[in-house]
Amino acid sequence: MATFYNQATLSYNGNVTVSNITTGEILDTVSATKTPLTETYTQGSDITYAVSVLNTGTADLTGLTVTDDLGSYSFGAPESKLVPLTYVEGTAKLFVDGAVQADPTVTSASPLTITGISVPSGGSAIIMYEASVNQFAPYGEDAGITNTVEITGISKTVLATASATITPEDGAELTITKTLSPVTVSGSGELTYTFVIQNSGSTAVTDADSVIFTDVFDPALNITSVTYNGAPWSAGTNYTYSEDTGLFTTPEGQITVPAADYVQDPDTGAWSVQPGTSSIVITGTLIS
Predict the structure, then answer these.
(1) What share of the chain is helix, strand, coil (3-state, %, to 5)?
(2) Segment (H or E) for 124
(3) Which is more confidently placed, 187 or 63?
(4) Percent of the chain with pLDDT over 90
(5) Do you find a cis peptide bond into 168, omega within 30 degrees of 0?
(6) pLDDT band at 28 (very low <50, low <70, confident <90, very high)
(7) Would you state the CATH architecture of domain 28-168?
(8) Cα–Cα distance between 152 and 154 in angstroms, integer?
């Protein structure tokens, strides 16, 4: 709803008089809401957005344009614009009063611009599309992506706006890699397994998370050394192992992994993830 004011002026014989001020209101007939189907993100994830346009007026609306800034934000000096979302080509869909329509026309990918939308009197349109989280998506404390859509008419007048905010996914995100050295060994030779556990998440893994590491060595090993982050581990305390089955297991709470660090390049503005890391190194000889 917008309020407007008017006042008249009358000039005569060098005199000026003014009228009273009239006040009026323009009732909004177009409203919009924007909803992300997923409220958190990780780098590379796809986010589906639904933009709902409601026409409460008595006339049909045609030729509407929906423009999404894809979360554009200012960066650096001199100031530039970074865009943390990338429109996924071919994903724009249109529904009018719940019925599927022909795919709408996308005239620009950034900012995302969808044209030729019509909304009947008393009706609604829903525009859905996907955007991929790219390298400019912020991470860290208070990070998030807020993107705004504008609904404009044929005259380019902004009829409605709507915004939505998504935030980085909280929690740990673990991966593990296993390497062997040497890869060729004689019948009862010595070899070393190295396990690197990485946490790409924003939350550290603590002993309360009850991580358990398990491996079955085949062929079985006569273990001579186990270290965790360079410190020696003791059988029965930090791990259990059976030479009969080759089963190696840690009890809950032995493994912790720091949270990742998120770094923004001061020149390009791109964000990178530096995972927190822990390692287990197991050395032994083959049991023939």
Answers:
(1) 0, 60, 40
(2) strand 124-133
(3) 63
(4) 80
(5) no
(6) low
(7) Sandwich (2.60)
(8) 7
116 pLDDT more than 70: yes
Side chain identity, residue 285? T
CATH (one of 2.40.50, 2.60.40, 3.30.1050, 1.20.1280) for 174-286 = 2.60.40
d(CA 251, CA 215): 13
Torsion 108-109-112-115 (CA) sign: positive
Average pLDDT over residues 266-275: 94
C-alpha distances in Å from residue 43, one per residue of 32, 38, 85, 130, 277: 28, 14, 10, 14, 19
Token pair, residue 276, equals: 């927190």
DSSP-H helix ranges across the chain: none
Kindly give, in sequence order, each residue whose CB lies less than 8 Å from that of residue 8, ignoring residues fewer than 6 positions away: 18, 19
Please check whether the two domains, 28-168 and 174-286, share a CATH topology: yes
Say if residue 4's pLDDT is above 70.
Answer: no
Which tokens go with 41?
A: 């993100």
